[in-house]
Request: fold
Amino acid sequence: MEFMGSMKRSCYCAELDAKDIGKEVTVMGWVAKARNLGSLVFIDLRDKSGIVQLFANDSNAEILEKAASLHQEYVIAASGTVQKRGGAVNPNIPTGEIEINISELKLLSKSEVTPFVVEEDVKAKDELRLKYRYLDLRRHCMQEQIVARHRVTRIARDYYDANGFLEIETPYLTKSTPEGARDYLVPSRVHKGKFYALPQSPQQYKQLLMVAGFDRYMQIVRCFRDEDLRADRQPEFTQLDLEMSFVTEEDVMTVNEGFIKKLMKEHKGMDVKTPFPRITWKEAMDRFGSDKPDTRFGMELKDISDLVKDSEFSVFKNAVSGGGSVRAISTEGHVFSRKEIDALTEFVKTYRAKGMVYISYTEEGVKSSAIKFLSEDLLAKIAERTGAKMGDTLFIVADKDKVVFDALGALRVEVAKRRGILDPNTFNYLWVTEFPLLEYDEEAGRFFAMHHPFTSPMDEDIEYLSSDPGRVRAKAYDIVLNGIELGGGSIRINNTELQTKMFECLGFTKESAEARFGYLLEAFKYGVPPHGGMAYGLDRLCMLLQGLDNIRDVIAFPKVQNASELMTNAPDVVDEEQLEELSISIKNNTEA
Reply:
């Protein structure tokens, strides 16, 4: 092994091209590939910028011998002259026209044989790549994704700074409060038997910053939720968090449309039209079966309940009489085979639908799984209502509204995927507004806040908080991109009386509300400006902008499905001494 000594890197590998021919340069990095041809050795050298080809020949025996001893992932420093390639040009890399004739070579660090080959088209399984994440991150595609994330955060900071926002940090060690997901708890050594909670969001702190008079706040902040994971969820994640004083919903949406417009222009080179389309939550559910609709394609839901409520088909009839609905989507120019329909029927069952009826309009005539219950007159009315024509297939679900919406909302996206009509280069943004303030949980027997307990009801609906809380709409809004919620927010409650009423609707006694949120209620006694804000899921935003389908790919050191990190083996056991300091004992669960 050698030291760098007087060698100093003059450029990154992929910064070189034909205009540099004749220059003396020094590059440093990892050996991506070494090819020993006896009297000639080629080395592909990799750094964060990409790859450049080096070569040594028998004109310098010492350098040739040293070059021949190199293996993959050795770290080297090399000086030499940039030359036009003597062999075939590689059009796939920026440095494909040139190579460096090595005049000085130093081996800075050796590498053992890696668990997998560090290459763009990696063959290793995800678990192995995550265990050796630092090797996976050497790949240029992975580094580009982390660089892209950096650019997004830089653009965000620049934009919000230019619009009068201050970046203010809020605490990580906070008080545990109910609602939402489970908290991650941190035991206190000083305060025996008491716990901090890691923040699920800085919600109450940013509201207190508005009480303090800062007017416009933003923060790129880590948040923590102890919940089951999926492709776009991690136990620790990053939010782009915002709050503004003396604003309406329109003000918040307008300033954030400006951010998206700037982001798309600078990061993607794309112009997006503002203002974004806006639809109410009810319209989104009625048309798309989802409060985060993908509007890149049609196949909208059509309510046919009134047409089939008196039909001979008991599935339709009973759904309507039981307070549910019967709705359909059309595949709009695609007839599915019976095998495909059976697979899609199983798909909707995962959303608690008991089954699915299909109607196919083919040259051989109308085909349906319920054909004997559907008269020609009823089939004609259904076709007119749904716009179905020759070459279409209708999929119909009958059940409670929630089941129908969940099943058909997911089905229309699944059908679009199977038809290959989702354009990854189309970015359809929209706002969904007027969410229900509360949602009723039958198991718990009470209402829960759909967003959080500080969301303001719409002025005209406040009177129903006591008499009919389920009909109250919120001053809430979500920003959606291609069927994925990017972020959401609301105008907040800014008076103690209304906040107390909200807590009552959520089942809090005066005492329990005081115990949980007393500091906030106390602050609200001293003059609270009207305020509102929102938060983006930054990981999710970066994932979508890069055309990826898993947020792990834009996080340097992510967790896996069970919230563990394979590289460091976290979480792990701790010393008994540490537990004693915290007055904690571990209860052995032999069944577990």
